[in-house]
């Protein structure tokens, strides 16, 4: 009885050990399968290193966007699928960034052209306004004279325009123009008027006697003091 019990216990232990050994093999197989599925990044890293070496060699000569794109395309052809997808996304991002920069630059150019156009329009308006003022002033100087020459003399337009311009009466405006044009003649006219005023009665008596005698007579007059 004791021998049978001992053999049964040994069989149970052996079976448990074998079960544990089988489970260990399964865990090992699963681990190896996972390791086998892991991609080998060594070729990809070598390609990336090659691209970096190219960029370092061109460090003294700045690359254009087109050259960078060509280098990206050449590099991604040797990479595995996940890295190629990542590089493609990066390339798309670079292209979108470039397009955004071009759109911003074009917008800035259009805005500059619009501001320049507005500035030119304002300058042109100022020039037209100045030309209009000058033309109006010239017209105001020329047009009244033309109208005065064309209008009938009975309208006295030249005299009226002169008096209106000088803001004087007809007599004062005429005297002012005479003084400016011929000071000596203006002085003689003023002195003659003073002599006539001082001898008004004597001249009137002399005229009556001259008409009665129907002859030329000499008259005595008094000269007033003059400056």
Summarize this structure as a short list of keywords or feature phrases.
mainly alpha
What would you note in describing this structure?
The chain has 227 residues and is mainly α. It is 82% helix and 0% strand. It has a domain at 10-115. Helix 3 (65-76) runs antiparallel to helix 4 and helix 5 packs across helix 6. The mean pLDDT is 74.
Mean pLDDT: 74
Specify Rg, calculated over alpha carbons: 60 Å
Q: In this structure, how is the largest beta sheet organized? A: none
In the predicted model, the low-confidence regions spanning at least 5 consecutive residues are: none
- The computed structural class is mainly alpha
SSE series:
HHHHHHHH
Q: Report the helical percentage.
A: over 70%
DSSP helical segment count: 8
Distance between the termini: 180 Å
Blueprint of the fold:
Blueprint: H1 2-37, H2 42-57, H3 65-76, H4 81-150, H5 157-166, H6 170-181, H7 183-198, H8 200-213
Helix pairs in contact: 2-3, 3-4, 5-6, 6-7
